[in-house]
Predict the structure.
Amino acid sequence: MKERMTSVDVAAIEGELAGFVDARVEKSYQLTENEVLIKLYHHEHGKANLLVVAGERIHFTEYPRPAPERPPDFPMVLRKHTKGGVITDVRQYDFDRIVEIDIERGGEVMTLVAELFGEGNVILTSDGEIIAPLKRKSFKDRRIKRGDRYEYPPSKENPLELDQQEFEGVLLESDSDVVRTIATKLNIGGTYAEEICLRAGVDKNMDIESVGDDEVGRLYDALSEISSAIKTGEIKPQVVKDDGKVDVVPLRLEIYSDLTTEDYSSFNTALDEFFSKDEIRELEEEKRNKYREKLEGLKGRKHGQVSTAEQYMEEYHEGIEKGDLIYAYFNQLKEILSTVRGALDSYSWPEIKEKFEKAREKDIESANLVNEINENQGVIVVELDGKEVEIDITKSVEKNAQETYEQAKKMKRKSKGARKAAEKTQELIDEFKQKDIDEFASREIPQRKVRKKDVWYDKFRWFHSSDGYLVIGGRNASQNEEIVKKYMEDHDLFFHTQMEGAPAVVIKSEGREIPRRTKEEAAVFAASNSNAWKKFYSADVYCVSPNQVTKSPESGEFVKKGSFVIRGDREYFNNTPLEHSVGVKIDDETRVIGGPPSSMDKHAEYKVDLKPGDLDRMKAAEEIRNIFLEKARAEDRELIKKIAKPDEIDRFIPPGEVTVDAGKT
């Protein structure tokens, strides 16, 4: 898996970063040993988080890590010199993995240098002098230290600026094969070296000395294709997957033609999704493990407290039983104590034990009760109804029984205390569980930011089809009129159910031919948002061209508000199923969306399927929200909490009661 950006990647992202020229620097943070985050505000693009990972990458991120409570020295220096400044230029240095950002404040221009090679560094300079480095470093040919002049590493060839003669000269200087020569001599890396060979149809393992003029020309043309796309910004960013992520590239590469790819609207987004999500997964798992460890620790504590309470109760019951036995054998025990005390005046302990042994041989009842005499502890161990009981020689039978009862009561109090402790621990467990494992994990996991664009059609019912067509429908008679009169155009299509009480639904074609799948989805949308939802399981829907829709009735007829007269042939979609989904879109923007299930499969990160049923809409909206939160990944939970409010979800639920399919997300 790719671990860092290449020089080509840096060249490709340069233009996207330059789109934030004129942005104001708000605050800087050092997130880890190698990560620096700079918060920006641009008058057109709004807020943005610029992430620099020394030695690896630079891009905007939607997943900023939480900053440490006590910032290190480096971000404090950045704040001192750049906060409130304006970015005036962003550039790649000499086709190297170095990005320079000029920041002007108070007439002074400072340059933030991001080194993305080797161990990497982030360095603030002014007029070439180092103000502050993220890391102090010394190399054979340069030193990174405060107060020193900033020296660039030795320059390499810039393949984007070579003409064919210069390109050929670089090749001829090598004694290696084609792919290694292009990768190293042109500072372009192995991936693009292989891509150039593949596009040129040249064996990558061919020795340079065997390469002819024709091969050189084809190799140069392939390089020029890549160079042109990078220079003009005509890139097509992709994440490449093969049983996991493999690469993130700014161009579609033929070497990856057999692998799965996912397209992105910008290279920034692709880089962020490729790198940041894996970091989030690792962080999420770390937090989940901490959650489990803490929960298991609490459970272990409670288990120990409950076991202790049970043990104390066993000792309590045993003590009560022993106290009762002492009273049950009161006379025999009194006789034993009297015998021992009387004998102590004349006999030694061994002699007393011998006398009891002889008494047992004579089967004297009281002597048979004695199991052991422990003169060191001053107790006699007797067996009463099969249970051993210790009797203190120095105390009366009554006193022995009383102290046994008191000790038992003490065990009962201890058991009660242990029970209370277990109850408090259970409260902690319940409180901890209420936080939910994902919520616990998400507290320190970078969260996506809400990005919602204002769109003209948001007041209507709407969705985007699986093929990318906008489909709109009225919420009431007035909106039906508005859609037909104001927004329906010549090449669009109009949909309606055969029954009354349905929205006027229009597919916006934008001049394109409308696919069958989009028509079928529009029919489902028209049926599901009609009165049929309240009564049936399917409905008949038709579609016509805009020129067949009119408000002009036949003589003697009346067309009420929100209704229309349809003339000419109709295309029917009979027995159209009533089905609908509500989803959350997470992409360049984030919002709640709704529409036919097939379209939600295409556009929603999370979705819940609905059918006609008996659940109130607002209760359904709350249930849908809970399902989203339950299924959401940790980095999405806070975002969903913010955008998937019940009243917002309700706007995308069909007009009637529903059944929620919790299994569909």
Q: What stands out?
A: The CA atoms of residues 201 and 218 lie 8 Å apart. The mean pLDDT is 90.
